[in-house]
Design a protein that fits this description.
heterodimer, A: about 280 residues, alpha+beta, four-stranded antiparallel β-sheet, B: about 260 residues, 2 helices, 11 strands, about 10% helix, elongated
Chain lengths: ~280, ~260
Amino acid sequence: MAQPRRRRRRRKKEEQQKGPKFSLRKMVDRQIDEVLRRGQRYDAFDQIRQRHFWSTFLFAYGDGPIESGAVDIFKVIPGGVGQGYPTNVPLTLRETNWRNVGRVPDNQNFVITELGCTVMRPSAQSPNGPDIPLNSIFANLPPTVQAAVNPLLPINPDDAARILYGMVLEMSFLTNNVPLGWCSDFSQSGGIHAFDPQLDTEYPGPGSPGQPTEDNQLGDPVNGTPAAAFRRKLEVPILLQHGETMGMRLNVHRPITLRNNLQGGAGWAEVRVDWWATESFVEYS
Amino acid sequence: MALPKKIQESVSRQGEELLETGRRFNHFNQIRQRHFWSTHLFKPSPTGYINAGAFQLFAVPTGQSGQGFLTPLTELETNWKSASRVPDNQNFEITEIGVSLFTTPQLPEDQIVEGEELLPIDHSLLRPFDAVSFLQGTVIAITYLTNQVELGLAQDFAQASGPTVGVYQPSDKIVLVGDDDENSRQDVRYATNGFVGPGLRRRLKIPILLQHGETFNFTFVIPRAFFVFPINFLVPNKDLPSTVFIYARFDFWATESFVEQS
């Protein structure tokens, strides 16, 4: 009888040395318990990186002003429609890389240290030629707006100034909106520099509307001196945790009058708001 | 003659280590910093569009053709030595990235539209309008084995430096010497991506880490095709310099550890 006891003691000692037995069933049960009782699937957000996040609104104003009112951004994801773009032109990564509608995705957290605003124009397109891309923004505008837009003109610097000085950038939370500054207060981190700023004689006149001339071989204006080191760094960063409701708005308090084609205006403009953020995330299949 | 015993043992141990652990190098004992770059050549379609798509960089090493080039790449186009992966004896810590445009070097004839000679000098410029279209229409992404992460638009990542006119407001166009004809005026050439200076580029506080052997690429993602003014796009009675190519260089500044073994 002494032998089986010795065997049991030996077995128990061996198990103690090995450690507790791994049980897949127990591991799955524990995770189920965490999710159902505590609503928490992730122990920790164990990966980290930094990058830009951005979202863009298209103002296709044609001949008219940009009307007063607030428009939301970070509300339409790639593949979705809205934010001023024609209804049958889904947004692409060019317009936004934000992947959740009006909230922070569940497996990411953000610390935002920079904000920026850029006045841009949609992808240039030959107005009459063949091979117009199917997802062309210009080709899918309503005809009345299309007639007042020139997709081959750069943004007029005067129009860029009116837009940047005429819009307030706001941060939207669940129950309130916080104005952060004018769009002109938040510069871009790069972009063409050293374009020809002469306006009076250089922009196309009524002689050749819609056609390039040697007088309009100009770059587009930039917001600020375009260098990352010159952007404002938020000493108190904006913190966004996973699942939180958030968004941003461009608030136009007074209508903004802009140039028409004959006056050298393009008839449309995009405003892109971007952040530079540190992102922690967890990647699960 | 048999090798001395100690050498035999050393050789045997190295062989064993390699076969059992797959590891040849104990550690990467040399370190330096430099730029690494890769360039893509975009040629507009005959109707003047740069097509949408994902265009990988660091996929073609020197001596091979690809990335839009019909001729083998030289170290002017790239100094990356491996196709879509980190070489086995190097590791990288990337602290800056950037995109440069604006100069198409003189390319060999077989790179040019058939029937054209080597690019005349006024046809090798990049129109600022088209440069902006590229910078604002291209997303920079890093591609790993199973996913792609977009980092920003090309215009978000300035070049480190570049020729600029000596004043902030280069308001005069360049006139060819001895030629008063208005039509011969050229675009402002010295445009850059960003207000340039190495100290003004973004520093990644969380660097991008790449270890030896890892699969990766940076990618130019162009979601929407955009129009550039091709060489045959004539305005009535005017013959404009046009964008023949967009020569887009992506570079990063990295600390590189490496081991050099024969």
